């Protein structure tokens, strides 16, 4: 089993442990996520690629690994997965840039809270 598989399996084991303590919460979570990731207006593969991008943006390793596997199981190829990575990188860079031009420039111009 690869390190990636081990981390995803460890997550699944911990969810199973949570289910023994909070079965209603865990089952509700599984029902909710199952409904969210089912084919609908967006197909399941596209939803997994979106989740991968969000996992990367959130810096969530297990989520990232899990959704790479799920995207592959739903038929995503390596190029599609890497394009999702590129989109996440664009959003991450855009996030920093948008905050820089909005908040930081405002602070530099004396319109924001003073840090010193």
From TrEMBL:
InterPro entries per the UniProt record, alphabetical: AhpD-like (IPR029032), CMD-like (IPR003779)
Gene3D superfamilies associated with the record: AhpD-like (1.20.1290.10)
Protein's UniProt keywords contain Zinc: no
Domain Carboxymuconolactone decarboxylase-like: 23-99
Record keywords, A-Z: Coiled coil
The keyword tRNA processing is assigned to this record: no
TM stretches of this protein: none
Family annotation (SUPFAM superfamilies): AhpD-like
Coiled coil (UniProt feature): 1-28
An example molecular function term from Gene Ontology annotations: peroxiredoxin activity
UniProt superkingdom: Bacteria
Name of this protein: Carboxymuconolactone decarboxylase family protein
Organism per entry: Paenibacillus thiaminolyticus (Bacillus thiaminolyticus)
């Amino acid at each position: 089993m690869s390190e990636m598989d081990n981390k995803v399996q460890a997550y699944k084991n911990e969810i199973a442990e949570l289910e023994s303590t909070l079965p209603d919460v865990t089952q509700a979570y599984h029902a909710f996520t199952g409904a969210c990731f089912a084919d609908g207006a967006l197909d399941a593969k596209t939803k997994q690629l979106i989740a991968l991008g969000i996992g990367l943006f959130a810096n969530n390793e297990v989520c990232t690994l899990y959704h790479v596997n799920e995207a592959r199981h739903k038929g995503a190829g390596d190029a599609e997965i890497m394009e999702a990575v590129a989109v996440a990188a664009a959003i991450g860079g855009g996030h920093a840039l948008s905050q820089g031009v909005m908040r930081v420039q405002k602070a530099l111009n004396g319109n924001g809270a003073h840090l010193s």
